[in-house]
Amino acid sequence: LIICLGIFGYKTHVNGGGVQGLLATLVGNDRETLEELEPIQFLLLGVSTDLGGKITDTIMVATYNPKDQTASLLSIPRDTYTGKDHSQGTPNEKINALYTKGIDRILAKVNELTGLDLKYYMVVDNEALIKLVDVIGGVEFDVPINMNYDDWGQKLHINLKKGYQLLDGDKAEQLVRFRHNNDGTTYPSEYGTQDIGRMRTQREFLKAAASQILTGNNIFKIDDIMQVVFENI
Questions:
Q1: Among the listed residues 199, 200, 218, 204, the one whose alpha carbon sits nearest the alpha carbon of residue 138
Q2: Which of 11, 52, 194, 206 is 20 to 30 A from 130 in CA distance terms?
Q3: Taking Cα atoms as reference points, which of 119, 109, 185 lies closest to residue 147?
Q4: 232 by DSSP, 3-state: which?
Q5: What is the CB-side half-sphere exposure of residue 59 using CA atoms within 13 A?
Q6: Residue 76 contacts by C-beta under 8 Å, 6 or more apart in sequence?
Q7: How far apart are CA 43 and CA 218, in angstroms?
């Protein structure tokens, strides 16, 4: 056992140490194989179960570089117009409605808008976020403003106080779906109002969740984490 741990520790150190070295060693990579891996880029879509999974309110381009263990997220505003005549535009021509017409349509439109050549996509049920956050014991996050919103049609109720706090799965969903309060107030302009602010909050929360997943006892919950992932993608 001591010998095995010693070899594992050495390989982790050789692969860069820390979380990067640990993950590279766990999946059987070494410095040579890491150098051969190409960046992974795909379209990330978030759908809400209370809307029947028909509209993608979260649209992101996700990029992961396995060589240096870096990742980035680019948000696409859900109200982006996809038609040809702005004067005759309808809600069905917003990019978040393209998902109902087929994944190829929204993938092609994002490629057109960004100049990228995305070939892969991942559709994530909002239940994944709720369950994942609960599995890791919550996520510490600095809520940027007081949030108070009710949508009885979607049975969505948001009630969060501003400040650094531990969010469970239910509160995490409230956070990432918030756009404006019942009285019409929204994020301050310097943060990004309405959907621009929501997209920023979503990116910041995903970064916070990712960093906390890979720390402490959560590294030993990888089986539970992957179970949530496979059930909701």
A1: 218
A2: 194
A3: 185
A4: coil
A5: 24
A6: 59, 60, 61, 95, 110, 113, 114
A7: 26
pLDDT the model gives residue 20:
66
Cβ–Cβ < 8 Å for 32, 112: no
DSSP one-letter string for 22-50: HHHHHTT--HHHHHHPPPEEEEEEEE-GG
**65-74, 157-166, 167-176 — which is least confidently predicted?**
65-74
What pLDDT band is residue 29 in, cutting at 50, 70 and 90? low
**What mean pLDDT do residues 206-230 have?**
82
Please state, in angstroms and rounded to a whole number, the distance separating the CA atoms of residues 15 and 25. 7
Amino acid letter for position 112: E
Based on its alpha-carbon atoms, the radius of gyration of the chain, rounded to whole angstroms, reads 20
102-113 core/surface letters (b: 16 or more CB in 10 A; e: else)? eeeebbebbeee
Q: Which residues make beta-bridge pairs with 158? A: 149
pTM to 2 decimals?
0.76
Which helix (H) or strand (E) segment holds residue 59: the answer is strand 56-65
